[in-house]
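Project outcomes to date are best conveyed with an example. Our students and postdoctoral researchers have been running inverse folding experiments weekly, and each run begins with a structure described purely in tokens. The record below, which covers 239 residues, was selected by the lab manager from last quarter's runs and is presented without edits.
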């Protein structure tokens, strides 16, 4: 049975802040679901373009209703983009359906727009919805900080934070480490069984989400420069 994996990350589009929610597992639909539909649902937004509390509740109610309607038709929600007073829902299907007519029949009072795309649906998924390395790091940070908070973390005390990266060559790992000589309390290298070089960097940090987002963005930039990969971070909980 298919299990979705929806994650959030922020995005700037047309100089406006947006929030992207994407099913990271949706690539399994790439071969058999060639039809893409974008359902546009306007809402009353705040000054920054994000929905008010009432509008957010209305969007949630609408999403539940539309997915309950379309799921039996084998129409899958793969993502949504919210911002600038509109929410775009992205659906894919095996067969071409008259979605606009279906929605008008079931939601006659709703203001809805429908955009239909054929045969390039997952190019849109890959280029617009699916997160890049920097956005994946933000998703990782959000989830880890939320888990820490759920365990009682108050984000007030510095502690050892271990940051992990991996490189194909020892020389690249060493050059990467030189950028953190003033920042890190320790930086170690060790070979892995797969031939890659694992780095472990420890620094004393209060691991708030903004702090870890800033650090991870810098690390991803450097790992790209030195043919490496960012693997995340971990730390203890301070209640």
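After processing, the design step wrote out the following sequence:
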């Amino acid at each position: 049975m298919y299990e979705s994996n929806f994650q959030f990350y922020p995005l700037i589009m047309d100089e406006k802040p947006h929030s992207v929610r994407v099913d990271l597992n949706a690539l399994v639909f790439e071969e058999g679901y060639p039809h893409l539909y974008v359902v546009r649902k306007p809402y009353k937004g705040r000054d920054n373009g994000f929905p008010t509390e009432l509008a957010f509740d209305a969007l949630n109610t609408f999403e539940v209703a539309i997915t309950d309607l379309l799921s039996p038709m084998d129409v899958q929600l793969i993502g949504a983009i919210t911002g600038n007073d509109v929410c775009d829902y992205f659906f894919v299907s095996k067969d071409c359906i008259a979605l606009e007519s279906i929605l008008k029949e079931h939601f006659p009072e709703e203001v809805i727009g429908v955009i239909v795309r054929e045969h390039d649906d997952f190019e849109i998924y890959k280029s617009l919805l699916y997160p890049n390395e920097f956005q994946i790091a933000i998703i990782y940070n959000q989830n880890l900080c939320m888990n820490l908070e759920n365990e009682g973390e108050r984000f007030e005390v510095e502690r050892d934070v271990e940051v992990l990266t991996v490189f194909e060559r020892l020389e690249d790992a060493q050059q990467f480490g030189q950028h953190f000589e003033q920042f890190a309390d320790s930086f170690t290298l060790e070979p892995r069984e797969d031939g890659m070089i694992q780095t472990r960097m420890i620094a004393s940090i209060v691991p708030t989400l903004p702090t870890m987002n800033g650090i991870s963005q810098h690390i991803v930039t450097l790992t790209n420069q030195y043919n490496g990969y960012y693997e995340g971070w971990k730390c203890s909980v301070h209640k």
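The chain has a mean pLDDT of 96. Residues 178 and 187 are 9 Å apart (CA to CA). The training component of this project remains on track.
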